Amino acid sequence: MFELLLTDPKTKARRGRLTTSHGIIETPVFMPVGTQASVKALDNRELLEMDTQIILGNTYHLSIRPGMEIIEAAGGLHSFMNWESPILTDSGGFQVFSLAKIRKIKNNGVEFRSHLDGSLLFLGPQESMAIQRKLGSDIAMAFDECPAHDSSPRELQAAIDRTIRWAKECRIQPRAEGQLVFGISQGGINPRLRERCTKEIVSLDFDGYAIGGVSVGEPEPEMMFAVDITEPFLPKNKVRYAMGLGTPSQMVELIARGVDMFDCVLPTRIARNGTAYTRKGTVNIKAGYAKSDFHPIEEGCTCFACRNHTRAYIRHLLNVNEILGLKLMSIHNSHFYLQLMKEIRTHLENGTFSDFRKEFVANYVPSERVRAMSQNIKLPSITEALKSTHKGKIAKAKKAKVSKATHAGKATKNVKVKPTKKQTSAKPKNISKSSQNSNNESSSRTIS
């Protein structure tokens, strides 16, 4: 259960403690994402060395691979992955609505095609809670519908109607021993729908509450607004979780708005692209400047990568596709997130969070790519961008050639040439044929 230890006097930030079957979680907390029973590129020893308190697994993915028979035979998810600390499992709802290309929403759940082999599957509140019970997670999430950020008012209304109805079903399903269940609020940035959905979900008396429907492609101000219009209706004595968020500066701002728990794939995802987090923003370790940079990724960082290796070495590993490069980057970024939460907890205890917030947010500048990724906005890859630029140059060159050819043709028409005696006495040529050939050649040159 959740214990609220203190609230920051200048913001809504909270210092709390959540007790679960597999241990106590100090909040605010970041949960590394282990979607398929593994945090990408990191092993359990490394996670524990970073003081990871809790990780996240996913109902949808784990139910497909390796399948519930295997996990049940192993004795549950904790035993299967040999992780003795707390685990939160997502309900699978977001994946159903984001990955399934073909889906049919019914009153009792969603019928959809697997993103792997196209096989017909069904997931609803009863199925999701049954899977999470078998997984044996410490915290299970209610099955909900996560609407797109640009959904129409009618679509939003239908989504929260289903979310409320499904939450009621989830609330009465059997649980694993000691398992907590969190309800999820939806409603986009519509204040009326957010209020209605949050109040209905809170009335069901879940063990904690999540703010859903954020980081689904909306601009950052809308993301913050969705949290702002939801938080007033959440009970102070229950833990609050912002799903799928966010960048370091976003998390600091959301903590100031009263959020306690976070999860996000960004630390390991951008690590695989060669991008590292620092207190001043993100840096690209694969860039040329780092070729002979024999400093750590960030001065003062206590992670294994920064204590033992330089930017130049890690850049070399990334550029020759050595797996160790991805691992070291993932270690640094995950450590950065976890250390940030630890520092925030200390600042809350010392009454200095407000000053820390101002300084951190003012100095932190994420790249456009990382900002877009945090909002699930797809940006073109470097290869795609280069192709687009190349196509643009070709089109521009073609346009210039056409313009030049047209100009030359007009200039020729305006020049009057006096024929010589030899030209006037020669036999006439087939003008139409000559003109056709001339036009073809001109066209051919223009196209090429």
Could you write a compact summary of the structure shown?
The chain is α/β, with parallel strands linked by helices and 448 residues long.
3D architecture notes:
The protein has a domain at 2-265: Queuine tRNA-ribosyltransferase-like (TIM Barrel), CATH 3.20.20.105. It starts with a strand and ends with a helix. The model is unreliable at 410-448 (pLDDT under 50). The protein is globular. The protein has helices at residues 44-49, 59-74, 77-81, 93-99, 125-135, 153-171, 191-202, 220-230, 248-256, 266-271, 304-308, 311-319, 323-350, 353-363, 368-374, 382-414, 421-425, 431-447, and strands at 2-7, 14-20, 23-27, 29-32, 55-58, 87-90, 103-106, 109-113, 120-123, 139-141, 180-185, 208-211, 239-242, 261-264, 275-278, 281-284. It is α/β, with parallel strands linked by helices and 448 residues long. The strands form four sheets. It has an eight-stranded parallel β-sheet.
Sum up the structure in keywords.
16% strand, 8-stranded parallel β-sheet, single chain, 48% helix, 3-stranded antiparallel β-sheet, TIM Barrel, 16 strands
The top level CATH class name of the domain at 2-265: Alpha Beta
- CATH architecture heading of the domain at 2-265: Alpha-Beta Barrel
CATH level 4 superfamily of the domain at 2-265: Queuine tRNA-ribosyltransferase-like
Q: Care to count the β-strands?
A: 16
Q: Residue ranges: pLDDT <50 for 5 or more in a row?
A: 410-448
Identify the strand order in the major beta sheet. Answer: 4-14-13-12-11-10-6-5
- Number of H/I helices: 18
Percent range for helical residues?
Answer: 40-55%
The overall average pLDDT, rounded, is 87
Overall shape: it is: globular
- Output the CATH topology of the domain at 2-265: TIM Barrel
Class from helix and strand fractions: alpha/beta
Task: Tell me about the largest β-sheet.
Answer: 8 strands, parallel
Strand content: 15-25%
What is the terminal-to-terminal distance? 72 Å
> Whole-number radius of gyration?
29 Å
